[in-house]
Amino acid sequence: MQKTRVLFVCEHNSARSRMAEAFLNALAGDRHMVESAGFDIAPVNPLAAKVMAELGMDITAKESQKVFDLYKSGRIYEFVITVCDESLAEQCPVFPGIVRRCHWSFPDPWNLEGSEEEQLEKTRAIRDQIKGAVEEWLANPEQCCTLKPGE
């Protein structure tokens, strides 16, 4: 059985796309080949790493990747799912082949305000929303939809 190739993209490949990649690998890595990338890469967000570690998932194990490097290398995906703001989603390159493009908008953990505990709580909420979106997508991947947190 050939695995479905899925790419998650966010601004820095430091939080949201890595969380989505980790959840899809954990829930259905046997059926999907999953990668994540960003437009302008940055180190892994420490809040995202911490809240994923709470679930036993390490999102720090690999280097951040640039989405345009994957594009230039000729990678082909069945699904390219952006998990960033609308404006950045529109900048994502169009990969060759038959690709379904999806957009799920989630807040960027780098932009959270408040005390460290408040930021952790908000990052947990983002993590849980991303997990829910991945689960919903897995239930019906052909129904590639735009998800808004909390709906």
The CATH topology annotation reads as Rossmann fold
Rounded to an integer in angstroms, the radius of gyration calculated over CA atoms is: 14 Å
Write out the strand line-up for the largest beta sheet, numbering strands in chain order: 2-1-3-4
Total of helices: 5
At CATH level 2, the architecture is 3-Layer(aba) Sandwich
Unreliable spans are: none
Q: In percent, how helical is the residue content? A: 25-40%
Total domain count: 1
What is the averaged pLDDT score? 88
Number of strands: 4
Overall geometry comes to globular
Instruction: Indicate the structural class.
Output: alpha/beta
Order of helices and strands: EHEHHEHEH
- Beta fraction of the residues? 5-15%
- What's the level 1 CATH class? Alpha Beta
Q: How far apart lie the N and C ends?
A: 34 Å
Give the biggest sheet: 4 strands, parallel
CATH homologous superfamily heading: Response regulator
Domain Phosphotyrosine protein phosphatase I: 4-140
Organism: Desulfatibacillum alkenivorans DSM 16219
Protein name: Arsenate reductase
Pfam families: LMWPc
